[in-house]
Amino acid sequence: MKKLFTSILALTLIVGCSKVYIEDADQNQDAFFYVDFEGAQMPVLVEGNVSSGKFIVVVHGGPGGAGMSYIGTPSIEKLEEDFAVVYYNQRLSDGATALSDDEISEPTRAQYAEDLNAILNTLKHKYGESSQFYLMGHSWGGELVTEFMSTPDYQDQVNGMINVSGLLKLSDTWKERISYIHELLIEISQIEISEGENLERWNEILDYCNSIDTASIEEYGTQLWDYGWSVSWNYLMEEGKTNHQVITGFDTYDLAPNIANGHGTAPGQSIPNGFLISNNPSDFFEDVTDRNNQTNDLINITKPSLIISGKYDCVVPPKLSEALYNGISSSNKTYVEMDSIGHDPYNRGEDFYNLVYSFVDQY
């Protein structure tokens, strides 16, 4: 966030079934407001070029992450010069509160999609029915955006989908996902060993992967998952295989310290007090229910779609992104596997910016 909020004007609106509290500084400053919807109060921040009429809505990962944690990421901040970017925190996530203790319950994926629809309705009320929206879902946010886009009444609200290392629920996602992680860890280990890199560590990973009985691979899921996170976030970055330091055309800063604490925000980035403080128990985040198989729903996605994966993503391997690409029926769809990156393609700076800019500008 580039500004502090001053001269606050508070308004209360009713949009559909949602009560919206809007706190605006003035037309030259960013807009911050809460959307109260079905028992949850979700903070929303709109930054950037509102006059463009095009809004990129960041749908964060988790469940239980924070949309505000993407603020200050150079590629996304650069997009604010061209379009408006909307950051919001999902129900039961950081900074989003329940309106009463009675409303704290296990949420469903469908509920999260309904929440997102309420936020879009609010944005249309505030900025005009002619506003254009592009959903950019990362990780779990990709699964949520897929839920939203495969619901025809919701899909009509938006102009396009940007799926960034997005999770996808298949018939047996855990087994398939673990199998893909297993395959990718073997491939990466073999490459690194052939190049003589960190041999002790990569041989350890390769030996473990080769010892697995693939017929019951789901039994090894926890260890493979841990290796996958470690490789995606640590080892490849340490060995210079992933581009986590953004230089060309952007402000330069090293993201490593923020990756370690789970935030993508640049050092010194200002965030309003309370945005990253949750009053709700974190164990709800892993209990999103009704996460059913999405395979048969993908054909309902007809809007333009940009699907981006990371070559070294051992958290949501590229094969899941390929399955999403192959499953949707949109005639305007693009799949890009970015090299030199893991689970965070948005940290590829100018490359990511150019992809998203071209997509939003075109559609």
Can you offer a commentary on this structure?
The structure is a single chain. By secondary structure, the protein is α/β, with parallel strands linked by helices. The protein contains 10 helices and 13 strands. The protein is globular.
Largest sheet: 11 strands, mixed
Number of helices: 10
Helix content: 25-40%
| Series of H and E elements | EEEEEHEEHEHHEHHHEEHEHEH
Content of β-strand: 15-25%
Mean pLDDT: 80
Rounded radius of gyration (Å): 20 Å
Low-pLDDT windows of residues: 1-12, 23-29, 245-285
Q: Which outline best applies?
A: globular
Number of strands: 13
Distance between the termini: 27 Å
What distinguishing features does this structure have?
13 strands, 10 helices, two-stranded antiparallel ribbon, disordered N terminus, single chain, 20% strand, 363 residues, alpha/beta, eleven-stranded mixed beta sheet
Brief summary of the model shown:
This protein is an alpha/beta fold. The protein is 33% helix and 20% strand.
